[in-house]
Amino acid sequence: MWSSAWSSVSAQDRATWNAPQTPFKVFGNTYYVGPHGLSSILISTPHGLVLIDGDLPESAPLIEAHIKALGFRVSDVHWILNSHAHSDHAGGIAQLQHDSGAQVFASAPGAHALELGGADPEDPQFGLAPTYTPVHHVRAVRDGEVVNFGGVEITGHATPGHTPGSMSWTWHSCEGNTCLNVAYADSLTAYTNKTFRYTDDAKHPHRVEDFRKSIATVAALPCDILLTPHPDQSNFWDRVQRRQTGAHPDALIDTAACKAYAADADKNLDAELTKEKAGQP
């Protein structure tokens, strides 16, 4: 069941999040195939396709159409990776898995949340975030594990905080003689159901410590191009527009982007902890 709070937000934002977006190449073998407000990233390998995030349940048909528009086949999506198990990033995975036959990958806590359809009691947004069709047979990836997907190595980085199972992903993408580090850094916002408290060690031990470590992890990621689950979290569309004008062909490349993203997250977490200490909701 959705809470009334999430339902009201959803009524305002879902259509905007799921607005159509022409798919395009980000760099090398990396493509944007999500709707305008939610990232879904396609990585082409010599032996199949990797998809990161499935967005909302209603995003699945759009993502599949975008994959086809780029000249790829949905049946060639062999692997689906998830950042975190909220419905706006995982809601479409069950359908995409069904249509492609792909194996799904997530962190161990993320895999558990996917199999619960997002109804994870350990989630700071439990009872607030909508549920969705559960995703089964999820392969858990360890922190720092490098997985070879069809000849392309992708590293999983555990970055818990926004959810217990949040995971960021990094890989190399090459175009001609130029190879860059691409980072898909998971959400780092401290957002809760208003009863969860990060500072409540009795109920949720080490949450603040883990969150700080995740922020430091993202700041240290190999990061020439930053992608995030919500494109506006990293000013993605502004950078894309600057590239499209032709005046700034390398506008997506910013080696300081992950550090800046992490610094903003640090400030957001500080603000949330200050509210908790003051007893504010």
From TrEMBL:
Coiled coil: none annotated. It is an enzyme of class 3 (hydrolase). Its cofactor is Zn(2+). It comes from the Bacteria. GO terms for biological process: antibiotic catabolic process; response to antibiotic. GO terms for molecular function: beta-lactamase activity; zinc ion binding. GO terms for cellular component: periplasmic space. It holds the Pfam family Lactamase_B. It is found in: Periplasm. Keywords: Antibiotic resistance, Hydrolase, Metal-binding, Periplasm, Signal, Zinc. Residues 37-230 form the Metallo-beta-lactamase domain. It catalyses: a beta-lactam + H2O = a substituted beta-amino acid. Its EC number is 3.5.2.6. Gene3D superfamilies: Ribonuclease Z/Hydroxyacylglutathione hydrolase-like. InterPro entries: Beta-lactamase_class-B_CS (IPR001018), Metallo-B-lactamas (IPR001279), NDM-1-like (IPR050855), RibonucZ/Hydroxyglut_hydro (IPR036866). Belongs to the metallo-beta-lactamase superfamily. Class-B beta-lactamase family. This is beta-lactamase. It comes from Dyella dinghuensis. The gene is bla.
